[in-house]
Each structure stands twice: as structure tokens, then as C-alpha cells.
Amino acid sequence: MPAYDRSHQHGTEAIPTFLPMDILTFTDQAAAPDAAGELQRNGDRLVFYDGTAARNLALENAATDLTTNGVVYANSSGLLLATAQGAANSVLTANAGAPSFSATPVIGTSLGIGGTAGGAGLALDAYAANTAVNLGSATMAARSTDAFAIDKGGRIGFMGQFNTAGTYTIFGAVGARKENATDGNTDGYLEFTTRSNAGGENVAMKITSTGGVVVGSPTGGDKGAGTINATAVYDDNVLLTDAVWDLYYDGHVRDEDQARWGALRLRSIAETAAFTRQHRHLPSLPGRAEWEAEGSRSLGQMVTALWETVEHLQRHIFELEGRLATMEGREAD
């Protein structure tokens, strides 16, 4: 196989033409080349000599080296070029124009990792080797790199534009943080925050390591596993029971209450006693069979049922007052 050895050649001799199957080789030369612009092998690379020092093989001219961490690419004219050196932990992106390294890259409008993005901006497909709780696996992790301390941990923010200038801000976030300052203790809580124009970002809800839920800033904080502590709870099943008094005084419920209270019945004390003797619960409250068949009621449903029960009990008090007044020979109040 013919070889061209420039270490023993001088002058302006041209590199000979080889057959397609031949290989162009260069003998290693420890000393500097003889003249500027010469190409030679220096260790494991080819270099140009510019008259002062040996430079890496450039792709357009001998003055532009292939820099550390640089990447070779082809431009629209078919030339091979090299990017500038990338900073530590930067990412190479190819947007409009030449590719470049960036510490804050923009990668299109959607990204799929392990699969297609589909309709999502970011989709992550990963095999979860462990499916049981408390095995330390996750499809995606958001980690904080600061030293361990209470209230430190990963956080994901949800951003959007808030003005005509297109400025972004975090409207809300979800974070998981260390619950205490004890070294080696892994207790953590889940935190949901929202944004207030006047007050900035606030903790809207917190789930503690024991499973307690704290909504807003109620008195007492966490009440323990399985509990919810909030300033107030509103339930659409809490309904007015004025229909009891409409039926008591007017003999009928209002038209707007027919759908809800049309079947309402006012029982006397004796009828109520007979009902409880037979069914073992008050007429306005669910019994054992109904409870077991249909399950528990919502808090709002139970409040409404108790509210209605109080109305009926008050009717009975009025009835007893009337009887007592008759026995005493006076008018009832």
C-alpha cells in the first residue's frame, strides 16, 4: 500500500493521486514542519503549521482550531464547520442558523423522551421497575441540590404570561420537601402553592408525611393521619329546610321547593314514636339498612338531615307547649 511520507520531503511537491482503494498516511513528525501551511501528523491528529505553532486541523482555514467540546456540522453550502466551545453543562441545539451551545436551551414546542410527545409539550415514557409504594423509584424526579435541611426538596412550577409584554411568572407549583431537620430522617410533605397578585406565592394545601391534609392556614395545623384541617368546608348538599315551616304554617311547600321537598311529611309525636319503634331511626335520618345499602352520606347531606330533624323536634316542642297550656288553662305562647 503506497504511503506519502512528508517527514522526508521538502519544497512544493504535490501529493500524488492514489487509487480509490489506497489510503493516505503520514509519518509522525515530532519536530515542527518545515514551512507555514504544511500538513503533517502529530501524534494522533493532523495539524497545520501556521509559521508559529502547530494548530489542529481546521475545517475552513488554518486559523480556526477545532476547540475542546466543539462539534462538527455541515452548513447550507456543504462546508464542514465547527461550533465554538460549549460551556460546562450546556446543551447543543440547532435552531435557525448554525447550531450552538446554550445553558438555557429552547427545544422546539414538544419533546418526547422514550416515546412520542403526542399532544403534550413534554411526554416521558419510562418503565417503572418497582410498582409498590416506598421502593424509591419514579418515572420522573425533580431534585434539589442544596444541602439537606427542613423545607428543602424538589419543586415543579407552572408558568404563563401575565401581561401584554409576554413576561412569564409562576402561577402555581407543586413541591415535595423535607419535613424536619433531623439527619437521616426521610419524612417529607407535599406542598401545593398558588399565586396572589397582592401577596405573592402562598401555600394553598399541604399533605404531611402522616397523611394529614392542611388547607390554607387554619388554627392548629396538621391534626394527624387521615384528617383535614381547613378554615371552613362548603358542601352543595347543605340545603335550607324552610319547607318544614311552610308546610306547618301554610299547609303546603313552595313551588320552587316541590322538586326537593314535595314528599315532605309532618308527623305528630305519636307518629314519630311509632316510626322509631318500627324502623329504629328518626324519619329524617337514614337507617341501618339504607346506610349499608347505599353507603355513608356526604357531610352536607348529614348536616341537612340533622337540620331538618331539629325543625321537626321544634314542632313537637310547640305541640307539647300547646297541650301544657290547655292543661293549665292558659293560651299557648
What key attributes describe this structure?
disordered N terminus, 6-stranded mixed beta sheet, 5 helices, 333 residues, alpha+beta, elongated, 3-stranded antiparallel beta sheet
Count of distinct strands: 15
Q: Strand sequence of the main sheet, in spatial order?
A: 10-11-12-13-14-15
Number of helices: 5
Q: Span from first to last CA? A: 126 Å
Overall, the morphology is elongated
* Helical fraction: 10-25%
- Along the chain, the helix and strand elements come as EEEEEEEEEEEEEEEHHHHH
Largest pleated sheet: 6 strands, mixed
Radius of gyration: 41 Å
β-strand amount: 15-25%
Structural class: alpha+beta
Description:
- The chain is an alpha+beta fold and 333 residues long.
- Among the domains are: 107-141, no CATH class; 143-229; 243-328, no CATH class.
- Helices cover 18% and strands 21% of the residues.
- It has 5 helices and 15 strands.
- The chain is elongated, with a radius of gyration of 41 Å.
- 5% of the residues are buried.
Per-chain topology:
Elements: E1 39-42, E2 45-49, E3 54-56, E4 72-74, E5 80-82, E6 91-93, E7 100-102, E8 111-113, E9 122-124, E10 155-161, E11 168-178, E12 188-196, E13 200-207, E14 213-215, E15 228-229, H1 243-250, H2 258-261, H3 269-279, H4 288-294, H5 299-328
Parallel strand pairs: 8-9, 14-15
Antiparallel strand pairs: 1-2, 2-3, 4-5, 6-7, 10-11, 11-12, 12-13, 13-14
